[in-house]
Each structure stands twice: as structure tokens, then as C-alpha cells.
Amino acid sequence: MVGELRYREFRVPLGPGLHAYPDELIRQRVGHDGHPEYQIRWLILRRGDDGDGGSSQVDCKAEHILLWMSNDEIYANCHKMLGEDGQVIGPSQEIAGEAGALDKSVLGEMETDVKALIQRALRQLEECVGTIPPAPLLHTVHVLSAYASIEPLTGVFKDPRVLDLLMHMLSSPDYQIRWSAGRMIQALASHDAGTRTQILLSLSQQEAIEKHLDFDSRCALLALFAQATLSEHPMSFEGIQLPQVPGRLLFSLVKRYLHVTSLLDQLNDSTAEPGAQNNSSPEELSGERDRLELEFSMAMGTLISELVQAMRWDWASSRQGPLARSSCSIFQPQLAEAGPGLPPTRAQPSIRRSRRFRPRSEFASGNTYALYVRETLQPGMRVRMLDDYEEVSAGDEGEFRQSNNGVPPVQVLWESTGRTYWVHWHMLEILGFEEDIEDVVEAEDYHRAVVGGALGVAVPSWRWKPMTELYAVPYVLPEDEDAEESEHLSQAEWWELLFFIKKLDGLDHQEVLQILQENLDGEVLDDEILAELAVPIELAQDLLLALPQRLDDSALRDLLNCHVYRKYGPEALAGQPAYPTLLEAQAQPQESAGKEPPTQYPDTPLRRLMEGCGPLGRTFLDLEHALSSGGPQETEIKPFLLQLQRQPQPFLTLMRSLATPAANKPLHLTVLRILMQLVDFPEAPLLPWHEAMDACMACLRSPDTDREVLQELMFFLHRLASVSRDYAVVLNQLGARDAISKALEKHLGKLELAQELRDMVFKCEKHAHLYRKLTTNILGGCIQMVLGQIEDHRRTHRPINIPFFDVFLRYLCQGSSVEVKEDKCWEKVEVSSNPHRASKLTDRNPKTYWESNGSAGSHYITLHMHRGVLVRQLTLLVAGEDSSYMPARVVVFGGDGPNSLNTELNSVNVMPSASRVVLLENLNRFWPVIQIRIKRCQQGGIDTRIRGVEVLGPKPTFWPVFREQLCRHTRLFYMVRAQAWSQDIAEDRRSLLHLSSRLNGALRQEQNFADRFLPDNEAAQALGKTCWEALVSPLVQNITSPDEDGISPLGWLLDQYLECREAAHNPQSRAAAFSSRVRRLTHLLVHVEPCEAPPPAVAAPRPKGRNQSHDWSSLATRGLPSSIVRNLTRCWGAVVEEQVNNFLTSHWRDDDFVPRYCEHFHNLQKSSSELFGPRAAFLLALHNGCAGGLLKLPFLKAAHVSEQFARHIDQRIQGSRIGGARGMEMLAQLQRCLETVLIFSGLEIATTFEHYYQHYMADRLLSVGSSWLEGAVLEQIGPCFPNRLPQQMLRSLSTSEELQRQFHVYQLQRLDQQLLKLDDTEKKMQGGQEASDKEHKGEKAEEAEGAGVAAAMGEEDEEEEEDEDLYYEGAMPEVSVLVLSPRCWPIASIRHTLNPRTCLPSYLRGTVNQYSNFYSKSQSYPALEQGPQRRLQWTWLGRAELQFGDQTLHVSTVQMWLLLYLNDLKAVSVESLLALSGLSPDMLDQAIGPLTSSRGPLDLEEQKDVPGGVLKIRDASEEPRPRRGNVWLIPPQMYLKAEDEEGRNLEKRRNLLNCLIVRILKAHGDEGLHIDQLVCRVLDAWQKGPCPPRGLVSSLSKGSACGSTDVLSCVLHLLGKGTVRRHDDRPHTLSYAVPVTVMEPHTESLNPGSSGPNPPLTFHTLQIRSRGVPYASCSGTHSFSTFR
């Protein structure tokens, strides 16, 4: 049933709250490709703001869109329009029941009755000519109207006699007969669009119909047309001032419009429907269609030409030349420079750069570059802008003034604006002072540097653009141009030229055809041959030279504005309004041909006025002379009037002179006299009186107009309205009724014919409304037909051959810079109180004011704006003399209605000395309602006084309306197509390979259309953005959405790409072709990166904050990717996660796991760059995908992976010490591994990685010492250590070195003191002792909190042993002590303590005791932080160098002690060494192993009665090789295993912390707990109980230490599992989410909650107060990491 919304579930979003639904199948046809197409009517409905409820749906003015759709598109979007067999239900099937309602016999009888009634009506009508119509005639017409409403009888009324009957009835002077004719036409036109169009077209195309129709009959026919077309194209032009078009021109437009719609219907019906029988051959059908297309194009061009003249657009174009749009991508965001591969929009000869400051391209990230700029930049330095930012453009230069902690932080004085503006650090390039700058870089190179992001190596960027043409703009590839076609006009250009040839009459037409025949070998030219001609460009230029002399003024204006003339016309005339020059050239021969010399006229105001019109003005002076000669003959005046019809400039100049000041009274009287005489001639109504009628109204409204002039004006207007009532309608539209009333009041009613003129104008009120409605309908219908042609162009890929198509679009798209003030911008003004004084706000009198009456802060002024008005400036007028009534703070809000004023546009603080307060400037969107709220008054006042409100805005244009329609049609077309393509991809994933070519074709077509037809970048960008959002966005969303198997089509394609990547290196393979298609598709999808639109920026004289901007300090925020990029990055991240997860599952136990993983990661990186370019968004997705794969590992597997990475880094660092090629290879492997390890940052695995790295780093530092590589590694992977323990270890080494330097000074000081004592007592000590070995020993000490037994014992013997040490003679060994803090060094490595008294020789004990004494004294100084004194505990850690013969042995401290112990003994048992040292057997065996190896100095002899064997020095005589040089005997690195007890202890600790977190959050319910409080409570519970029990914690051995970072790592784990959730409004508040089964600590792992996919979480540094952390000060503040 027509009009019923049967398919509302298929909705297509067209805008905010706006949707389109398929409603009805209108017709079907066979498309150009031979497949059937169906025209579907889509209803446009609006949803309320309360959601998607059905009750809130209302029809949006019955708007609809007619769209031709293919079978596939209907199947994908409107499958309920399909029958059970899957075929489309045709329109004929819906009305089959109604068509068969009448019996054939009954229908035949009724047809006979209709024919008889028509004959009778004609006879009765002829008999009543000149008399009152008899009743029988009216009854006959009434019965005919009843028959006409029966649809099966429509064919009978197509009889030509019916048209004759209607013509006679419409021409009848009797109103009842004309009304009856209208009833019959309405009945006939009520069936369908085709019948209505045919009837109206048949009536309007009757010969000389205008001669038979008077004003009323024509208005009746126009009213029928308006009523018939009202529902076809419901389009509103509210707020746009439409011109006053007389009824005569309107009727002509109606005829043209009906003719075009009729031809369009014939085109749609010309092709036989599928299955229909047709006897015509395919050639005949094709020829008929070509003929119809040519006729339709010519008719459409004529309609556009007349419409342009009626809208007076042609005169506007004569004053301003057409603007040429720069050729650039319509899909790329418009930048100041042109895109890659396209010509730049502006040329710059060269730019300047600095000689000594680094550019942004040399830095790996924007943050690093920002830090460099902040540290380097000094006030007074020159800088250049690298990016567009608000009011500053890329390339602008300025002088740096200052910086602070605000946002943005940098203030620069910019040369382009002449004032300061705040920007961000990373946006600036330092040029330096003038002596640091040189002119070396060309502008093009600099442009590439700015847009591409690098002058050398490409770095990741949010706005990266490839430099190659294929990936930069894939859809505008240069096509191979046929040389023959380039020498001829295209069909569209030839048809546009042919349009002007067809406008020629008689001899002129034959002359132009003769030119064509002469150049085409004398071929006979008929209409069919003319349409298919291939016209050379040289011939076209000859025709363009011949046509201007043969065309009238209006046609000449069309020629000069058309595309073919601008492209191939004479260079002297192209691009400028040349038709006055041509008209002068035409007038000069006529003037010189006269036999009599020109008449000399006296110097009068009229002559001076006409001199500005050139030769045409001379012609008008001749006309005035003829009129004033007395009794002019009609034959004398008629040639002048005909010439004025062709060239009306002098006539319009004459009429517009009435708008000149009133001082020109003589001129005004002369003009009115001439116009009064011209009105009486029969040809006068054809002059364009309506185009200058506004000048008459200006003279009528002027208060200074003389009474005599006003009286003559009344006579003239009354006479003009009497001759043609059309001009009475025009006067009504211009508001003449009120103007005449005011003139009568001013002159006390003493103006003759003024009242009669006012009554005549008032009676035309309904006709004025009809004319406005008709103008709207015709313009709306033309716009809809233009949009339909654009749709056909998209569907068929055939060129648009309609003349003036680009002209019409240019006028619809062009804006206006004309500013409009006050009442022309707003519809009404409302105030909060005292509405009777609201008029004082707009009376332009600064002495009057509006005063409010209410409570403080409740006063407001509401402006209801005209549609489409963008406010250029909104100003509030105040006065300081109002004191406390003067506003102090004003806030401006905008909204779509009075109840939705939610958007704050600006807030301004008003100074007491202000008089004009600018509230808004240069709004970039239309706000229907703007409200000014006075929040506070000066001096605490309650009420306020406002002196005035001024609004300045641009002139409303057609562009907002046309943009809305264009975007709606484009969005609907491409969203329907996207759904059809998505359906194909869903059925067969392999069709995704063809998506690139499909998208390229569509985008290339839109690009070419914009380049050819759209006049400016704004229109082109609107079209490109809509096309991209409607076509690409849904496609990307569909191909990235996973199916029931969890795999998206694009994800499957990317997986296939990764699998065949190695095979694709062969360019001849199928894999290479496959990979090429995938790359073209991905680069096409990501080559456009539109930024998210920021909220509307409002410029005010006093910006609030810094440049009225938010915090855009980071480089990534500036380039936020669109939804397309988000979907693509999400898909790519899922693919990477699956790849990494599969690799980890298969290879995590391999010995070469880390190198293989690094290679796999490197391949993924290269694939990401190949597919998407080095865009930061996809690199981030790659990292997130790798992180997601790591997060899926169980705890022990993840611990094993982290240990493998820590081991690999340790091996590469130690291997790099080798040097040479092998060392360089180790460094390269280390660098690749570090890039991979960076992914651990912010993940739970980072905690275990730090644990193992800390152990291996400690052994490395203590065994071989520190190097520059340690710091470099930590600098690169520092974020992977949540506790920053490795960094603290290096820092403690630096502290120890400083203590060692202080200790050396301390030793010298003690030595000087003892020497002074010896000098006083004159005692000399002699002696010497020669040591057989030279020792260099490095002792390690442990820092402990509180006093210990070992320390106390050391203090008792300190003085004695120090005395012994002072008297030691010989070469003292060099001792270096390192103080290690247990807070950062592994406790397991330093748990074995050393007793210097029993284990060290006396000459070493003295130095050790001296250092202990030194350290105790250094800790005894007063400090701000009071706490327990730190003392030393000596450990077995460290290394030493021993001299053994000619060899230098590099050994550990344990090995040193063992070797020195053998200096006094020949042999020693291992059992006695264990008892003496207190070491564990494993630690002692690890030290003995290298010493007893082939390179070592000891032998281990096994004895039955001695457990462990006996050590003795190896005999030198048994050594076969010379014993000299350096020998490394330090025990090798012992690597841990994650599966051992230590790894399980880590897992138990993690499980216990999970239990604690869940238990604490459960206790706090839904309210949750702040993250800081949660960490503190967990740490308290860990230290004190009651959970976990002390025994359970002690079972974890030394792994029981817990810190804030460990707690946060568990929080991350629980968030990823979904056990814990964050509050959306309070992101730092956590609460329990789902039930969890807490497993016991001894179990393998804890699995709380669901294991669904969650995005990896990142760290963010916060500060909390530590409570109960071991080895921490009670008042210390510790840094930990929490989630973001």
C-alpha cells in the first residue's frame, strides 16, 4: 500500500537524528549494463532526542529521495521487497488487484459516455460565448470531473478534444468555468506523476497559450502546477531572499520544467523492461535513446539558462569572474600546502633554516624533540611553525618571547598576524638569531619536509603521507590519454556548444552549419549526425569566434559563462565579463551605417546618466528624443523597444537611477515621464521591469523624496500594475503596501491613485504567495533533477552532457561575503523581563536601554536567528555611567532550540570602562538560537541595563541548502552501495581483493566530478568527506568486524599476507600479485587521516585561557585518527596478537626463543610499514597486539619468557666486550632485542622481567664491572622496570665511587696525623716486609638498618688493628669498597656475610677496619631525616686481581681468600674451608671449579678419609706452557630457571596479592576504593595480618618482600581478567566486578574472573605514602605505577 512504512528496519543514517527508510518501489528499467534497475522511494524520518523509540518518530515534512538500485543493492538493503523466489516484487504486482476491479463491458460503456460528454461540453461552451454559462454546462463539466477521477478511464481523457475543451474553459472570462476546468485537471492529475506531468505539459505546450490566457487563467494553471509539485520536491529555502519573478517568466519556467520532466520520464521508460516484448531492433532502441538524451540535455540547459536569468545570478557573475578551484584531493583534509603529487597552492621562492640547530626530523619522537626545543630556545630567537595550529599556519615565522607552565606553554610574536600567539613546543623549528640563519632550502623541499615529517629518514607520525604517487593519492592516477581524443572536444563540450548553435534562428543558424560543413568535408548534417560529431578544437575555436555576433544579450552571457568558452574561447575574452564590449562592437556598425550624422543632445542629467552605457546609451537618448517629439508613432518606437529587450542595460540603468539621492529631482521626473510613456506600448510588458523594481521601492520609502516625484511615481506604478497585474504581485512581494500607507500618512492622503494602488497590491497577496511557492518548487525541482543526474553519473560512469551544469552548481555552491546587520540576521529578540522595552535593544539609539527586573544572574537576551546565518560578530553595547547596572560577566550559549541551550560559546568579563563588548566572532556553524546571559553586574548590582545588541552576519546563500541535499543523496547512494559490497565480501572473502579497484573507481569518479563541476574547495571537501564517510567507513567497519568464528574478513586477508610474505619476493609469483592487491587496499583505506573535529572555535577579543584551546600538548593528540583508522588499527592489533600468541605457544621452550621472537617481531614491523606506512597509530597497534599475546601466557610461561629475555640481554652485553666484528654483531643483536623488550613496559610481565634482569645485572656488575653500555641499555628500556631497581643499582655504584674518593682523602688525613705524632716523639720505625704476592682486592659491603653483632665486634678491635695497619711496610694492596643497598640489590646475592677478623689477613683487615670507621663517622653527622644509623656488613661479593708468578689472576673474593689462605699452607681440605668461611657447599664449589681447571693454579685431590677432597698449589714443573699474562678465573654466570622454587615463590606471591585485593574490594562493595587507599591496605595486610598468615608468608622464603609496584601489577592482572573494574566517572576508583574462585597459594596459577579479550593497560606514575615497606624510612615517599 502506497505510503505505508513497511521496511523501516532498513534505516540509513543521513545525519544527526535523521534516517532514511525504503518505502516503495516506483518503477523499473534496464540499465546501461543490461541488468534491471529499480527506483525506490526512501522516506526521510527524524528521531526524537529521547532515543530510538517508535513514539518519537515523526515524518520530516514528507521528504523523500528517489534512488535507482540494482538487484544486489536491493538484496543487501531491502530484502523484504523480494518475493519468495528471491526476485524483486515489481510495481505492477501491487496494483494488479485494483486494475481488474472493473468489468471490460462496463468500462467500455463508461468510455462511450465520456466521449459523448466531451462533445456535449464543447458544443455548450461554444453556444455560451459572451454570456453567463448555463447550468447544463456546469453539470456536464462536473460529471466529466467525476469520470476523470476513475483511473482506468485516464486513457480516454488523453483525447486531443479534451485539451481543446480545457483550453477553452481556462480562457473563459467566467470564474466558474475556469474553476471547473481546474477541478477536472486536478482529478486527472491525481493518479500518478506521469499522468499529471503529461496533462500539465500538454496544456502548457499549446501554441500561443499565453495569448489565450489572461492573468487569472494563468494563475489558475500555475496554482495547479504548484499543488501538483508541492509533494514531489519538498525543499525549504527559509531565510534566503528569492527574487521577484513575474508570472510571465514563471509560466515560461513551468513549461520548461514540465518539458524536462517529461523527457526524463521518457528516458527512464525508453528501455524495454525485462521480459517485455518489443519489435524494435537494438540499433533503433539505442538511436531513440540517444535522441532522447540529446533532447533532454538541450531542454535541461534551456531550463538552467532561464532559471539563472530569473534568479539574476547571471548579473552577479558579470560583476565577479568565476573562481577556479585548485586541483587537490577532495578526500584529504585541506592544508595550507598542496598534497603530495599535486601542484602547490602557493609558490615560495625559498625558506630559511638554521646553521646550528637540529630539525625535528633528526629525533625519534615528538616528545624528545619538544624537550630539545624547550631546553635550547632563548628569548629573541627566530622560530618557524611546522604545523597548522588555530590562527597560525605552517611556515609562519616569528620571535620567541617567553614560556611558562600553561597550556600551550610558548608565546611567539608572529609576523603573519602582527601579534603574539601561544603554541606548543613540538610545533616550532628553531632558526636562532639572525647570524644563525641561512637561505638554502627551496620551498618545495621544505613543504615535503613539513608534510612528510622528515628530510631524511621517515619516522613514525600521526599525519605521515607517502611521497610516492601510488600510495599518496591512489585514485587520481594519470590515465593514458588518447591523442586523437585530446585534439577533439568531448561529447559534453560539443553538446554545450551545440546548444548555442540550436538557439540561432534562420540565416545565422545556416551560416554556422555552413562553417561546420566546410570543415567536415561537406557532410550533410541532421540532428542525429550533429549529436555524434567529433569536432576538432580548431573548429570549435572558429565557432566560438562566430557565435558572439549572432547571439542576443542573454544568450551571450550564457556563452561567456559556459565551460567550453572559458576553456577554448579567445584569450582576450576568457575569464572576464566581456559581453558589454561585444555589444558595443555590434552597435558601432549600426551607428556608422546611418546616413545622417548623430544628433547632438543638450547636457542634461539624463544624458550624463546614459553616457555611462556607451553606444547603447546613445540609442536610449534617441528613444527619449522620439518620445518627447510629440505623438510618436508605434512604428518608430518599436525598434527601440525590441533592442532594449535584447540589451536591457540602459533601461535598467534608467530605472535604478530612482534610487539615487532625492537631490536629483529633475532626473527623477524625467525618468518617470519616460517610463510612463513606455508603459502604454504593447511591447513594454516584455521589458525586465521587475529587475529594477527595488529602486522604485527605495524612492517610495525614502523620507526625503519630493512630493511631486512621489506623485509621479504613484501614477507610474498604478499604470504599470494596471497594464500587467504581474507587477502588482511584484510590488506586493517587495512590501509596497506598507510603504504606500506610510507615504499617505506623511502627505495626509493627498496622493492621487495611491489608495487605488494600495488596494490593487493588497488583492495580489495570494498571488504573491503562489509566485513564491512556485519559485521554490521550480528551484527545488531543478536541484533534485541535478542530484538525480549526479546519481546516474555515479551509477553508469557516463559523463554529464548537460549544458551549464557546472554553471548551475557554481551558483548553488558559491557563498557571499556581503555582511548583513541586525534585523536581517535574526527573526525575533526575547528578553527575560520587561519585554515591552526589548525594542530598545535594536533601535540603534545609545541613549535608550533595556533594563531587567529579577534576581541577580537570571537576566538573558535570546536571539532567534534566520536559517543559515553564521554570526560574524555579536556585540553588546553598554555604558559606564550605568554604574552597578552595567554587566560585569557575560556568557553566551547556543543551541538548536530554546530548551537545548547547552553549548557555551564564549564568556567575557566586562571592564567598567567598556562601551562595546564583542561576544562572538567568526562562528563556523549555524546556531538557531543564541542566548546572552548576564551572570554578574558591576559592584554587585542585581538588575542590568543593556544599551543595544548588534549582530553582523553573512548573507544567506543557497549553499547550506544544497550542501544538505547533496550530502544526503551522496550518503544514501554510497551507504547502499557499501552495504551491497559488504554483502559480497561476507559471502566470499576472496572478493575483498577486488575492493581496491572498486573503491578506486568510485573515488576517482568523485574526484573528477569535483574538479569538473564544483567551484570551490569548500564544496569539494564537503562532497569528499561525505563520500568517504558513507562508503569507506561502513566498509571498513564491516570488513573489520569478526564473524561467528571470531575472524574478520580483513583480518583473514592480513593473515594470508603475512603467510605468503616470503614467497612474494618473486615478482612473477601469484603471491606477489596477491600481496600487491592487499597493499593497494590498505594504503587506500589509510591514506586519508581526517582529524576529529574539535568543538566550534569562537574567536573573541579577549580569549579565555591560552588561545581558547584545550590541552593539545602532545603530538599524538593533534592527529587523533578517525573511526576508520581506529577500526583498522584494532583489526591489525588482533592479527598481530594472534600471530604472537601462536608463536609463543609453539616456541616458548626453544633454546633460541629470543632471537627467533625478535626476528618475528621485526617481520611484523616491516609488514606494518609495507601495509600502512610508518604511521604511529599502526605501530602502536602492533605493540598492543604483541602485548596482548604476552598477556595470554600463564604466569610461569610468562616468567620463563621474561627470564629468557633477561638472559639474552646479559649474554649480549658480556659478548659485546669481546670487540671486533663479533662484538659489533652482539651489539646489533642487543639493539634488536631491546626494541622488542620495550613492549614489556606497562605489562604485568615487566615485574618478573625486572626481577631476573636485576639478578643478572648484579652478577655482571660485581664480576666484570660497569661499562657505558649498562647505562645506554637502561636508558632505552628503562620504562620496562616498574621499581626502577636497575637504575638504582647504577646510582648506588656512583655513590660508592664518590665514597671511595672521600675514603682516600680520609686515609691521607690519618697518615698525616700519625706522622706528626712520630715527629714529636722522635721515634723512627724501620722495618720492611717483602710480600711474595701483590693483591688488589675489592670488598663489597651491605648496608643494614640497626646495630648488629658483627659490627659491634668490629668496633672493639678497630683501634688495635688500625695501629697494626699503620706500621705495615711494603707495597700496600689497593682496596676499593662498594657499598650496596639491599633496597635495590638482590638480597639472595648478599645473604652470606664475611667476618674480616677471621677470613682476611692483617694487612687487609686494617684497610677494611679503616673503611668501617670512616663510614660510621660519615653517618654520624646530623641530618634532616632522623632514623637508625646505617652500619656495614661485609659480604663475599666482589672480585680481585692476584699476582701468581708471571700471571695476573682475575678472581672473585671467595677465590682470593682461598688462594691467600694457601700462601701459608701447602694443602687444605674443602671441609675445613667450609667450616672456616661459613659458605654454602654450592657457593664454594662454584669458586673452586675455575681454580682447578686447566687454566687454574690449584689441583683437587680426592682422598677417602677427607670429604670433598684436598686443594693444593699445582707444581710449576708439570705445567707444559709458559705461565704469564691475564687469566680470567671468575666463576661463570649462573642463570635461574622460572620453573624452580624461586619462580614458584613469585607465583605464590602474585596469587596471595590477588586474594588480598579481591577480599578488600569485596568488603567495600559497589562504592569501591581509591587506588592509593587500596595499595596501602594491601601492604598493611601483607605486613601485619590477619591475612595472609605469618606462616604462609614465611613459606615464601626470601621472595616474601612486597612493594607497591607488585600490588599494582596484580591490579593490572585483575583488570585484564575482568575481576576488578574501574568507575567511568572516577577512573582511579576500583571495585569488585564478578565472583572469583580464589585458589590456594600452592596451586599453579590464579584465574579470577572471565578470560575475555581486554585491551592491555598502561602505567602512569603517581605518588603515595608508603606504610610498612621493608627497609624504607617511615616518612619516605615512594613512586609506583598505576593503571591508565
Textual characterization of the structure:
This protein is α+β, with helices and mostly antiparallel strands. Strands 23, 24, 25, 26, 27 and 31 form a 6-stranded mixed beta sheet that branches. Strands 9-8-7-6-10 form a 5-stranded antiparallel beta sheet, with no helix packed on it. β2 and β3 (36-46) form a beta hairpin. α4 (104-127) packs antiparallel against α5 (135-148). The longest helix is centred in the last third of the chain and has 37 residues, at 1285-1321.
* Helical amount: 40-55%
Q: Would you report the number of β strands?
A: 36
Unreliable stretches: 1-8, 49-61, 92-100, 318-323, 335-351, 439-464, 572-596, 1091-1121, 1327-1368, 1423-1427, 1587-1599, 1636-1684
The biggest beta sheet is recorded as: 6 strands, mixed
Radius of gyration: 47 Å
List keywords for this structure.
single chain, 1684 residues, 6-stranded mixed sheet, 5-stranded antiparallel sheet, 49% helix, elongated, disordered N terminus
Short synopsis of the structure:
With 1684 residues, the protein is α+β, with helices and mostly antiparallel strands. The chain is built from 61 helices and 36 strands. The radius of gyration is 47 Å and the shape is elongated.
Question: How would the blueprint of this fold be written?
Answer:
Layout: E1 12-15, E2 18-30, E3 36-46, E4 58-70, H1 71-77, H2 91-94, H3 96-99, H4 104-127, H5 135-148, H6 160-171, H7 175-188, H8 193-204, H9 209-212, H10 215-229, H11 247-270, H12 282-310, H13 313-319, E5 350-354, H14 366-376, E6 382-385, E7 397-403, E8 410-414, E9 420-423, E10 428-432, E11 437-442, H15 443-452, H16 469-472, H17 483-486, H18 491-503, H19 506-519, H20 527-531, H21 537-546, H22 553-561, H23 563-568, H24 579-593, H25 605-610, H26 615-628, H27 634-646, H28 649-656, H29 665-679, H30 693-701, H31 707-723, H32 725-733, H33 736-746, H34 754-763, H35 765-796, H36 805-813, E12 819-821, E13 826-831, E14 850-851, E15 859-865, E16 873-877, E17 887-895, E18 903-909, E19 916-921, E20 929-937, E21 945-946, E22 948-954, H37 959-987, H38 995-1013, H39 1017-1039, H40 1049-1059, H41 1070-1086, H42 1115-1118, H43 1123-1147, H44 1153-1172, H45 1176-1191, H46 1195-1215, H47 1220-1237, H48 1245-1264, H49 1268-1277, H50 1285-1321, E23 1335-1345, H51 1349-1356, H52 1358-1366, E24 1374-1380, H53 1396-1399, H54 1402-1419, E25 1430-1435, E26 1439-1444, ...
Parallel strand pairs: 23-24, 27-31
Antiparallel strand pairs: 1-2, 2-3, 3-4, 5-11, 6-7, 6-10, 7-8, 8-9, 12-22, 13-15, 14-21, 15-20, 16-19, 16-22, 17-18, 17-20, 23-25, 23-26, 26-27, 28-30, 29-30, 32-34, 33-34, 35-36
Helix pairs in contact: 1-37, 4-5, 4-6, 5-7, 6-7, 7-10, 8-11, 10-11, 10-35, 11-12, 11-35, 26-27, 29-31, 31-32, 31-34, 32-34, 32-35, 33-34, 35-37, 37-39, 38-39, 38-41, 39-43, 40-43, 43-44, 43-45, 44-45, 44-47, 46-47, 46-48, 52-54, 58-59, 58-61
